[in-house]
Task: structure prediction
Amino acid sequence: MSKERVLTLIRHAKSGWDDPSLSDFDRPLNERGERDAPEMARRLAARGEYPDHFIASSARRARETALVLAQGTGFPEADIRFERSLYLADTQRLLSTIRNLPDRAREVWLVGHNPDLTDLANLLAGPHTDNLPTCAVFRMAFDAGSWRDVREGSGRLLVHDTPKKPWQAT
Result:
């Protein structure tokens, strides 16, 4: 049995700033976000990418993105684990979350926020991007028997897909 683990970081889709009475945590997806999230779900499904464990920030825009991704890929919405601690999480908090994932999980999706996801992607898989735009997918593999073994620079980039710049397999 392969001991490879796959982590897919997904930045929430584009959110709106139209209602100044809403807190940052409560901002919903805007029209572009509502268009991009289903498109990225379609691309994930077309590449045969499905999680067996799915966690997301509980901020509204991340929650809405995760639900759209689940609907578009057939992942049970009730099985998404929403975590408040992923909102405004720094890189070390995200890394701690990853290292505490259950070892039965081989493929994990994490929906969160910038700049933390960009920093985490670069920390784990080397410098690949200056910015993960909204609804970007950054998928990487680790040769690790346990999530506890995930270390800086140990990730191998598999896919870096964005709504405006689709991934081209080489």
Summary: The longest helix spans residues 31-46.
